[in-house]
Design brief:
7 helices, 2% strand
């Protein structure tokens, strides 16, 4: 039982580094994630991951190479967008305005984009015999925790004005690197 839970948690951690980086990036941009948005992101990524786990061997030849490419392109695009946005900024945003909120509806396609990466890993995990229910539950838990941790880290960094832009550049660079690596290995 401990091996199943450990394997499911390791799977979920491996699938959610991009979620953590994305949450940090959005936090640095001043986008707020509501509880509903976090739950939608978690539900969408978990649903896609669960389907990929369930399909396992049926879709391995088709889905695995495609998911790596699509996931990599998505991450690379988000990273490039973040880098360009950070380079375009001239000064840290010190306006006391309420930050924009990322709505749950906007999180559905974002969750699907994040889940594309999980699909290939889900197929591989399904082939290796990891149980769908445990992996899906672990993915939901880790996705929610990664989003909350990323948001908390971004809030801390934003309070240090000089680090805000540098961290935004770093997170954009990491997203871009993750995307390129996903394409390269996909």
């Amino acid at each position: 039982m401990a091996e199943l839970i450990g394997g499911a948690l390791l799977f979920a951690l491996a699938c959610n580094l991009d979620t953590l980086i994305l949450a940090i990036t959005y936090g640095l941009k001043g986008l707020r994630l509501t509880v509903a948005a976090v739950l939608v992101l978690g539900a969408v990524t978990t649903a896609v991951t669960g389907v990929a786990l369930s399909l396992g061997h049926l879709a391995a030849d088709i889905l695995a190479p495609l998911s790596g490419l699509l996931g990599g392109l998505t991450l690379a695009g988000l990273g490039l967008w973040t880098l360009l946005d950070a380079l375009r900024q001239t000064a840290p945003n010190s306006e006391p305005n309420t930050p924009p909120v990322l709505t749950p509806a906007a999180c559905v396609p974002l969750g699907a984009a994040l889940a594309v990466n999980n699909a290939g890993a889900g197929v591989a995990a399904g082939l290796s015999g990891l149980p769908v229910v445990w992996c899906a539950a672990a993915n939901l838990l880790v996705t929610v925790l990664a989003l909350l941790a990323g948001r908390a880290l971004a809030v801390r960094v934003r309070t240090l004005p000089r680090l805000g832009k540098a961290t935004l550049l770093l997170s954009g660079g990491l997203l871009l690197l993750l995307g390129v690596l996903q394409i390269w290995n996909g």
